Amino acid sequence: MGRWSIARVDEVHVVTMTSNKVNAMNGEFFGDLQAALAELQSGDALPVVLTGHGRCFCAGLDLRELYDLDRGTLTSFVDRLDETILAWFSLSRPTVAAVNGHAIAGGCVLALACDLRVAVDRDATVGVNEVQVGIPFPAVPLAIMRHTLSPAHAREVMLFGRLYAPSEALGRGLVDEIVPPSDVIARAVAVARSVALDSLEAYATLKAHLLAPALAEYAATREQVNREFLDVWFSECGRRRVGEVRERLLRRS
After folding, report:
1. This prediction's pTM
2. Residue ranges for the chain with pLDDT beneath 70
3. Spatial separation of the C-alpha atoms in residues 219 and 217, rounded to whole Å
4. Is there a contact between 137 and 130 (Cβ–Cβ < 8 Å)?
């Protein structure tokens, strides 16, 4: 398996992301996610909790690494992003995100790719700030956001790119409940475990039906959405905005 830990707790697989300090999404991150998926799919079909470590769930795309990629290489990266997050979104069992801290941009999307989200009640931010960075969404993140959020919340959350405190995120459907930090894993496990093990086949069947429209929309629009994402990324404005954010990240590291 990859570097992530997978522990069995009360008949639930608890997956802890440990790719880097803030679980920034780069090639290694998606390799770890693929390895975790392979291990889960080869083992007992139990509910799954996904969490991060420290005070960060996942900080989204690793702009420090991705900024220098040429269009062909970034195209391959986006294809891998789509494939891997789509596999998690489609996992045929209950999935609950234990959002232990910041869940930003792609990290927020990954939490939304789970069936439910339990978040910590502390100083953390949740949201998708792509527009503020100067880029749109690839196809899978766009499909997941539109599937999970109400139309009104999707417009606000995606178009204005704000990062929300947990209580604000709750009001916009980005998380489903808030608990003290010490309780987030236990509560997420309890939510995942609330589906009886002998009901998991029924759960998987219903989940597949519920996801079918989003998956069909993704398949129909994938080529155009990803092409437009790349066009904006490599535009003059896109390069300038992403470059500015990258420089701020480099100064912090």
Report:
1. 0.96
2. 1-2
3. 5
4. yes
Q: State the virtual CA torsion across 133, 138, 143, 146 in degrees, nearest 10.
A: 20
Cβ atoms of residues 237 and 134 within 8 Å: yes
For residue 50, the model assigns a pLDDT of 98
Contact criterion met (CB below 8 Å) for 18 and 58: no
pLDDT tens digits along 83-93: 999 999 999 99
Strand ordering across the sheet containing 102-104: 56-58, 102-104, 126-127
SS3 state at 229 = helix
Query: What is the pLDDT, as a whole number, of residue 2?
Result: 56
The dihedral built from the CA positions of residue 107, 112, 116 and 119, taken in this order, carries a sign that is positive
The string of DSSP codes covering 72-141 is HHHHHHHHHHHHHHHHHHT-SS-EEEEE-SEEETHHHHHHHTSSEEEEESSS--EE--HHHHT----HHH
pLDDT for position 62: 96
Residue showing tokens 């894993």: 185
Known catalytic residues are: 130
Beta bridge partners of 8: 13
Q: Quick one: which H or E segment has residue 152?
A: helix 151-160
